[in-house]
Amino acid sequence: MIRSDRPRILVAHDGVVVVDKPAGLPSTGRTLDDPQCVQGWLMTELRRRKVWAVHQLDRDTTGLNLFVTRKALVAEAGAWLSRGEKTYLARVHGRWTGGERLITEAIGRRRVGRGWWPALDAAGKPARSKVRARTVGETQSLVEVRIETGRSHQVRLHLLAAG
């Protein structure tokens, strides 16, 4: 896949829209039509049709973002969303020595300045990620992360917990 600094619509069918999100652009913004995010850009591309993010990628993460229109929400009442699996590929620093591993560290929130930020927290909500190595190198590794729950920053926090 060729990356650019602009989002691209890859699929738009029956109210489901898949967007190739570049790094440096958040998936969603402070409002539904915030022009500084993929969601706002997509609403402009779709002639002001409202869309909702099925999931979000961090601002600096590239990848596929899934959005739905009201048509998809009404047609399936969201049931198809629960049948999907979320699998991510992540390039991590260092040599992955964990083999295949289930990470179950709970995720909560920690106060940072005047706000809150997701963090590993034993008193937080349960989270489960299955991680397995795809390619292991001396200075970096490529791992596959399949999340069974959908907590904010789960992939990054669970990989941090794994070292």
What does this structure look like?
With 163 residues, the chain is α+β, with helices and mostly antiparallel strands. The chain is built from 4 helices and 10 strands, in the order E-E-H-E-E-H-H-E-E-E-E-E-E-H. The strands form 3 sheets. The chain has a 4-stranded antiparallel β-sheet with strand order 1-2-4-3. A 4-stranded antiparallel β-sheet has the order 5-10-9-6, covered by helices on one side. A two-stranded antiparallel sheet has the order 7-8. The longest helix is centred in the N-terminal third of the chain and has 8 residues, at 38-45.
Short description, anyone?
The chain has 163 residues and is α+β, with helices and mostly antiparallel strands. Helices cover 17% and strands 37% of the residues.
Structural class, by secondary structure, is: alpha+beta
Order of helices and strands: EEHEEHHEEEEEEH
Sequence stretches where pLDDT stays below 50 over 5 or more residues? none
| Overall shape | globular
The percentage of residues in β strands lies in 35-45%
Tell me the span between the first and last alpha carbons: 29 Å
Strand neighbour order, sheet with most strands: 1-2-4-3
Helix content: 10-25%
**Main beta-sheet annotation:** 4 strands, antiparallel
Rg (C-alpha, Å) = 17 Å
Total number of helices:
4
Give the mean pLDDT.
87
